[in-house]
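Colleagues,

Please find the record for the two-part complex below.
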Amino acid sequence: MLNFDYRRPESLDEALSLRKEWGGKSSLLMGGTDLFLAIEEEVRRPELLIDLKKIRALSGLEEKDGAVHIGAAVTYSELIHSDLVHQKLPGIWESSRLVASVGIRNSATMVGNICNAVPSAESATPLMIRDAVIHITSASGSRSVPAVEFFTGPRRTVVKDDEIVTSISVPLMKGKFGESYVKLGRYRGEDIAQVATAVLVDENWNYRIAYGAVGPVPMGIPGAEAVLKGKKPAADLIEKAKSEVLNTVSPIGDIRASKEYRLHMCAVMFEKAIDAAVSRMETGAPAYGARLI
Amino acid sequence: MEDSEKKVFRNDAVAKVTGRAKYADDYTFHGMIHGVPVYTDSVHAEILGIDTAEAESFPGVRKVLTWKDVPGEPAWGQIEHDHYIFAREKIRYHGDVIALVVADTRDIALQAAALVKWELKELEPVLDQKTALGAKSNLVNEKFPGNKVTHHHVRRGNAEAVFPACYKIVEREFRTPFVEHAYMEPECAFANPLTDGTIELYGTFQHPFSTRRYCSAFLNRQFADFVVYSHPTGGSFGGKDDTISVIAARAALAASLLRVPVKILYDREWSFRESYKRNPYIMKYKYGLSPEGKILALNTYMLSESGGITSTTPWSTWRSTAQCAGPYVVDNVHTDVIGVATNNVFTGAMRGFGTPQVNFAIEQMMDICAEELDLDPVEFRRINMVRQDSITITGQKLDSHIVSMEEVMDKVIARSGYLENVKKSSRGKSDSDELYGTGLAISYRGSSVGAEGLDFAACMVNCQFDGSIVLDTGIHENGQGAQSVMMLALAEEFDVPLSRIRYNRSSTTSIPDSGTTVATRGTMMGVSAVRKASAKLKKIIRETLSDDFRCDPEDIRFEKDRLVAGGSYSLTWEEAMHRMFLHRTYPFAFGEYKAPRVSWDDEVGAGDAYFTYVYSCNVVELTVNKKTGKVKVIKATAGHDVGRAINPELVKGQIYGGIAQGLGMALTEDLQIEGGKIMNPNFNKYRIPKSVDMPEIEAIIIENEDRTTPSGVKGIGEPATEIAAAAIANAIYNATGVRQFSLPIKLEGAAE
């Protein structure tokens, strides 16, 4: 049975100084839905838990300066119930609805999800395709890291032991666009993704494509983006782009799916995700949140 | 009793919905201490030594128990005595416990458990049934040469002589997996030593009397030295017998040695590791058919994995044997069912008890045979199914009850639209990504334990002089509503409102052993005992009050909460009970019910296996996505002839749950065992169906009141789950055109 200390600072400064003092011996607590399991299974053995829930500065969810800012304390349920997110970040809204179950979503946060950094992290790919930026602070200063550079390995990110992720900002799109997030679980009920695909397309036929659960980190597929760039998708382009996807991803076989099945589904889901994103941009259908697979 | 009362009744509903029901871990006693089991990481090894010194000197540890502390039998069991309270010479599976650390707190016990050391000589793990059977050396248990723990057979007619003359021979092999019960409440037991030397036991038991037998054997104490209490149990499905009884005995042993209350609470992963599962089967089925579609001969050969402990494998395999042909008349049958020991997790009773496995094979074979003969599968079943006065494969004439196989099948077919839907089935071809299929399966199931055990039950009706009534039966409530059913039956007998009746929280010392709540017997046996006790009590009341009525005792009737006779004179129920007081006669009766005779001759493999049968039919509709390989069950229609439905909504509840459990076995539940170790011992990786995985279910209750027992009931618990996987498998074939020979069905590999 693991023993640890527990602090609940009321300001970010106080939290940062604790973080500076304790470094890697500390773990940050927000929703706790991943952390407590990790502690119970002794994947993590913190000596100090820094509970961030009392820090008001982390709880913002607002549109400002051409971006939507999502504070570290914002839960998935808040995101799902936000009109701002539904209208401006429909892909993120769609993916948030697929996180675990209501009980978990009431507690779990998006920042927690990306900091936990499992390859199947629900919010990773929708943030990557929107060029989201992750804001990180320490006692000695702040920095911002693009979502595409945030993940460094399974359960590893660029966040250092003395740092805290305070928010995410997602730039607003100009003009028409369509997004899609396709998640494949083993069952209809709550499950971690076997494969996840996120696609963004804009009115100039620029594409952003990312995959989760098919490599050590969530990954963008620049090869496929380049193939499709500037063009409306046609069957031959899709085939070419699909092979770029399959050349980029590197899935493993595990208890949730075999490697072969994951590869097969990367291709199947690519078409579904492109179809949905393009159709949403052009016709508004299928509605965001509709079942895509 | 008002009809409105009858629609839904649960005496425990409010307590459970509001969270006030007390389960085993909710009980706590002053001075209570805690026990934690110690496992090795081996699945097959000789034990050379166990060193508890360091753990015992850990601050807060009271004692570390091993086999050396056991005063009675080292091993016990329902059939074979091979379940060790603490492993002694050998480790036989990953869940074998070598010690119990007892400490002031659970935390201390957990820490100290890591300090127990052992020395083992590793042995080659025996992990495969086929190679295990017949092995000459490296046996799981020396008791069982060739690792064979049981062997049942049926020899009827002469199948081998008939096969050569058959028009068609159809032969296939099927496999079914380990399945976890997934009861909501994991194992918990605690023992409280009383000053007179008796030991009280609380815990999540499906049969307190079974727990008492284990405790008695291990502690070398008589039955009356234990008081095992009934209290709310968070599900069982057959799974709360052997394992929890052994855990309870460890608590009892610790409590008797230390003279303080001892609790043992399992977490889910220990529960997965140590508790028994559904027996996996490997089944060869060979049918010989006539051109007209008559089954002329059947040969089956099955292996049923028993794992490291025998448990009830000899009984569940007997049921597989007696029901190996399904609800069909076959004159030439040659069946062998063999239980095989391995070092995998042991297997035992689980809802269905040897039939979900054989039905998975039989009901697919029916569809396969029909297709081979170019016959409609429903017509093929009609040609061969049991009817009134048919002779079963074990030589039993079905004349004790109404044989309603065809009625049940026809009702489910009509309600589900099976005949039209089956024509729409995709058989692998569709314009969209979705393939559609519907599948049907039927069964008959012997009610109660049949010839595997002695079947009797007790009931006490204790009317109070103010008119209230205390009811007690020996049938244990596992969470399915057994108490409510007995109360309804009693209210019906005397035509009194349910509000008069309280169900007594019984114990092993307050009522005689009425057998375990298994085998779909609870309602049938319990209500029969209620009826016996009620008849006795009516006689007592009538004889006592006939002078008051100035009539013959038989003329007094119990109507609408009153006692009435021919004339204008009548008594309210309260008045009647008060009169009983004035007569100084107790309105109390003890009723006992003995089930009708059954028989089995193990030499010939024949007999009157069960005294009555439940007839069942499931139809399932589903879609398979060609591209993803995902299966979505969209509708299930289930019909069962339950004899009589005493609490119809609870019957439906049993049917819904049965479909859920069958769906899990068919599609989602995949116990992964590597080297004898369970790799997914929790619900994050072992997936039972969630609400969104469930289809719409239409439950059809068919009532042909049963003549064999006073209850009129035949039961529903196990029939509700025993054909769901088979129907799903047939539906998947009709959707995809590809047969599924093993469970759980995984189509991801076949996604296009």
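Chain A has a mean pLDDT of 96.

Comments are welcome before we finalize the supplementary table.
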